[in-house]
C-alpha cells in the first residue's frame, strides 16, 4: 500500500514538472531582426526544435541535423545547451509559427513567433504635399491579442495598423514609432525615419530701409549646392522672379545647383544648403522662387515667396501750427503676424502701437512744440526691425493765410505805408518850395547890390520894375 502511494506521488510530481516546463510563450519580432526563442531546459546536448509540428533542427549525440525542407540552415542555431534556446537571424515573414522545444517526446516549451514588418508608401523620402502611408503587416486583426499604436514625438497618431498622413510638410519629418503589445506581455517598437525634402524654415519677410542691399533667403533642408546631391532627391530646374519677370535661372554643374550670376549667391562650400540671393538695389514686394525636385520617378514643383518690406510715413497737412490736430500715417507693404507697428515721439515716452500683423497705423496728434519728431517702427517683441521718421515743422499761427488777423494786419500796413508816402511827398514838396523862395531872395539881393553899385546908389525905376 505504501509503495502504491509513493508511486502515485511520484507520478503526480512528474506531471507537475512537465506541465511547468511545457509553458507557452508569445514572441513578436520584425523582419530582418535577430530573435531568441526560449527553451530553458538543460540537457546532455540532445534537443529537438519543431516548427509547426515539423522538424526544424535537432542535436543527437553531438551531431546537428535539419529538417528536410529547411532552407538557409545557417540562420538557425542553438548557441548553448545549458538553455537550448533557439536563435534565428535575419528573420523572415515565413518564420512565423509555433515552435516547440522537446526531447524524447517530452515538450519542454512552446513558443509562438509572430513576424511583422512596416511598409512605407511611396518611400521613406518624400516631397512636400505628397501623402505618406505607414502600414503594419500582418494587420493586428490577424494576430490575436495584438494592440497597435503609432506615435511621433511622443504623441499618439493612430491606434490602427495603418497610419496615413496627407499633404506632408517639413514638420512631418522625423521618427514614427509603431508600438506593438501582446496580451501575454511581449512587446515591440518599430521605428521608421521619414525624410521630407524641401525649403527649410526661414524668414518669409525681410525688412529694408530705402534702397539698402538685402539678402532674400531661400534655404533648403538638404545640401542642394553640393556636387554629390542626396541619392534620394535631385534638382531638375529653378528660377527666381519679381512681378512675373524672371531675374535669374538655376543651373546645374556636375550635380550641383547654383545661380547663373555668382555674385548673387554665397560660397557653396560654406553654405551648401543655401540658395539665397543678394540684391544690391532691392524693390519692395514679393520675390518668388520656383524649383522642380525629383525623387525616383516622382517630381514636385515647389514655390516659395519672400517679401521685401519697406516702411513709409507721412503727415496729411502742409501747414502745421501749434495746438492743431495732425494725422500721421504709417504703412508697410508686408509684416510678420507676430510683429506690430508703433508710433513714438522723440524725447518723450509717448507711444502708440497697433495690433499684431496690422500693416498700417494712423494716428492724430496735437502739435504743441515748435518741432515735433515722430518715428514709426516695426517691432517684433523687443526687436526693432525697421523704422522711419517724420518731422512736423510748426509754422507761426499769425502767418497762416487762412488767418483773418493776417489780412487785417496787411491792410493796416498798406494804409500806414500810404500815409508815410504821402507825408514824405508833402515834406519833399514843402522843402522844394522853401529852397526856391530862398533862392529867389538871394537872387534879388545880389541884383539889388549890383545895380546900386552901377548907379552910385540909385537903382533905376525900370530895373526895379523888371525885378
Written overview of the protein:
The protein is α+β, with helices and mostly antiparallel strands and 467 residues long. Helices cover 16% and strands 43% of the residues. It contains 3 helices and 31 strands. Strands 1, 3, 4, 5, 8, 9, 11 and 14 form an 8-stranded mixed beta sheet that branches. Strands 17-24-23-19-20-21 form a 6-stranded mixed beta sheet, with no helix packed on it. The termini are far apart. Residues 1-23 have low confidence and may be disordered.
Short précis:
With 467 residues, this protein is α+β, with helices and mostly antiparallel strands. Helix content is 16%, strand content 43%.
List the topology elements.
Elements: H1 2-21, E1 23-30, E2 35-37, E3 47-51, E4 54-60, E5 63-66, E6 76-77, E7 86-88, E8 97-103, E9 106-121, E10 125-126, E11 132-137, E12 146-152, E13 155-158, E14 162-165, E15 174-182, E16 187-196, E17 205-207, E18 214-216, E19 234-242, E20 245-253, E21 256-259, E22 277-279, E23 285-295, E24 298-309, E25 311-315, E26 325-332, E27 340-345, E28 351-353, E29 360-366, E30 371-380, E31 383-393, H2 404-454, H3 461-466
Parallel strand pairs: 1-9, 10-16, 17-24
Antiparallel strand pairs: 2-7, 3-4, 3-8, 4-5, 6-7, 8-9, 9-11, 11-14, 12-13, 12-15, 15-16, 18-22, 19-20, 19-23, 20-21, 23-24, 25-26, 26-29, 27-28, 27-30, 30-31
Count of DSSP H/I helices: 3
Q: What proportion strand? A: 35-45%
The Rg value, from CA coordinates, equals 52 Å
Helix content: 10-25%
Class from helix and strand fractions: alpha+beta
Low-confidence stretches: 1-23
N- to C-terminal separation? 203 Å
Overall 3D form: rod-shaped
Mean pLDDT: 83
